[in-house]
Amino acid sequence: MFQCVFSSSVLQPHSTSCLFKHLFYHSATPASQKQPEPIYSKKTEIQRQTVRAPFAKLFIFSALQVARQLLLQQQQQQQVSGLKSPKRNDKQPALQVPVSVAMMTPQVITPQQMQQILQQQVLSPQQLQVLLQQQQALMLQQQQLQEFYKKQQEQLQLQLLQQQHAGKQPKEQQQVATQQLAFQQQLLQMQQLQQQHLLSLQRQGLLTIQPGQPALPLQPLAQGMIPTELQQLWKEVTSAHTAEETTSNNHSSLDLTTTCVSSSAPSKTSLIMNPHASTNGQLSVHTPKRESLSHEEHPHSHPLYGHGVCKWPGCEAVCEDFQSFLKHLNSEHALDDRSTAQCRVQMQVVQQLELQLAKDKERLQAMMTHLHVKSTEPKAAPQPLNLVSSVTLSKSASEASPQSLPHTPTTPTAPLTPVTQGPSVITTTSMHTVGPIRRRYSDKYNVPISSADIAQNQEFYKNAEVRPPFTYASLIRQAILESPEKQLTLNEIYNWFTRMFAYFRRNAATWKNAVRHNLSLHKCFVRVENVKGAVWTVDEVEFQKRRPQKISGNPSLIKNMQSSHAYCTPLNAALQASMAENSIPLYTTASMGNPTLGNLASAIREELNGAMEHTNSNESDSSPGRSPMQAVHPVHVKEEPLDPEEAEGPLSLVTTANHSPDFDHDRDYEDEPVNEDME
DNA sequence: GGTACACTAAACAGCA
DNA sequence: CTGCTGTTTAGTGTAC
């Protein structure tokens, strides 16, 4: 989950596809409108309603939280590094980095990715520069504040211990506790100030936050702060802490150049046990040696040390124990030009991550707004106020602007970061989910599954335990058609299900029964006695008979459908754009390596042509509210309630998203693993 | 409200 | 007897 989510922004290409598949299926595409649920007959409607809408939102939230965690980790790394640099200049342009970014740890983005990130930013280069500088300065300030806050906590704890053992100094303890409380309150204020700061940035045009959108739920200390406010706060805290302390220069108090860069910092106890030790006018107490602090707190915990390896960017030196690591840190990563440069690089990485986080926050907000609009749209409008007229629909679906969506006037969904293609991608596709999308569309409108459906989301469904939005009949047909001889035994169909869909790796009794039921029920499935037993084939004629009722639409839609671009273009463009935005290899359906995907285009055309034939004969049945994509591919529209287990939140989805194709045999997977490879 | 459809669950039979 | 395969029925939910 973690990597999948976060790398969507910066780091890991492979996971990016994962994320965008998630996005597609929980926010954007018509397919997302269906949330699976295996057993819904015994669930109350209330359960379903509460389960569906928050699903995607929770996932997005989770993704953001994870990204935030990683960002904080990066900040920690930078923090440790930054304290070692006496030359660091907060206002220094971030691009003057002599050290190759490729030296960084595997976690770190490559120069190419960095460039991509830069290119995809919403801001102009000038704006970006300004914003970078501001963020850089603010970030350092808040880091210092964090450190001080931590010290305060430590001090309080130590004094509490002292009090317990010695039973004295109650007054001082109370004083510190009071300061602690006040400090926490001030932190809350700072959070508000952060939002103000963002708003000011927005007013300056440096941030593109949509109007009317609620303030972003900023995390304390996770965003930049107004320097003056922070300094004021700093002054208040420090002055309250030591009354006799001569308030130092605000700039110097925040200037890392005044900090002690020696690794042999004064012991923490000396600073903490005696508050007066920090009354030297220099705020060395506020610039602790993190390694020493964390070392004492957690003997083997260090942001730059983990799994016996030095995590200094580009180092990865093996250190047997923590002591050796400290030696290594002090020797190999001492204060020099190289370390300084690396530190700057790390700073830049953090900045980029922050920017990316801000951007993703924006995206999240837009998505949430979008989903909120959709979910709160009155159900009483089965024919939604589709402002996309038939004239508009006669054009390419991809040309339709998101503004065409029926938005509630109070919560307009402004264009989503129009500079980047990623969000607009989602918008482009999600725009086709207008109307009562949360409602499950009739399966009458389900076009049987096409190769494109599975192809484009194959990896997703293979790994994510999400029920595919396709009917059993469609899946069975797909399985059979994918086989070389266009025929499968029942067991082979089972295997196809379990191989292609993680969802079908559990509750085997249920879905297998359903498969058998469908095989028997539908005339399109023909049982043929074969040499090796009975096999099932698909009677396409019978199968096509089901189609006429599946597509209805007005002539404009039909006309639009005559070009396969109506369906292919937006989706493929969406995928490609999202991939390009995240600088990952194009994940086209044709490059997925599945032999069945080679016929994707023809399959799509086949589906479309087949649909067209029937649709043309049924033009009287118009559905003006249906968008082209829905009309062409209404199978995505079908929405189903969530499985209670899946409804637990995004975690269930996201965690399973990283499952290896190897099945989880320990989870209700009643059958043997796939014991034969049909292909 | 009726109808069609999909899904789930279950019963049942035949067979190896 | 057990398990698999295949058929059928019933109940439920959803969309039209």
From TrEMBL:
Origin: domain of life: Eukaryota
Q: Does the keyword Methyltransferase apply?
A: no
Q: Which residues form the Fork-head domain?
A: 467-540
Enumerate composition-biased segments (Acidic residues): 669-679
In which residue ranges does the UniProt entry place its DNA-binding region annotation? 467-540
- Provide the primary localization: nucleus
Compositional bias (Basic and acidic residues)? 288-300
Compositionally biased, Polar residues: which spans? Answer: 271-285, 392-405, 614-625
Biased composition (Low complexity) is annotated at 406-420
Q: Which GO terms describe its molecular function?
A: core promoter sequence-specific DNA binding; DNA-binding transcription repressor activity, RNA polymerase II-specific; identical protein binding; nuclear androgen receptor binding; RNA polymerase II cis-regulatory region sequence-specific DNA binding; zinc ion binding
Biological processes annotated in GO:
DNA damage response; endothelial cell activation; macrophage activation; monocyte activation; negative regulation of androgen receptor signaling pathway; negative regulation of B cell apoptotic process; negative regulation of gene expression; osteoclast development
Entry keyword set: DNA-binding, Metal-binding, Nucleus, Repressor, Transcription, Transcription regulation, Zinc, Zinc-finger
Give an example GO cellular component term for this record. nucleus
What is its subcellular localisation?
A: Nucleus
Pfam assignment, any one: Forkhead
**Positions of the UniProt region annotated as Disordered:** 271-300, 392-424, 613-679
Record's PANTHER family? Answer: FORKHEAD BOX P, ISOFORM C (PTHR45796), FORKHEAD BOX PROTEIN P1 (PTHR45796:SF3)
Its name, as the record gives it, is Forkhead box P1
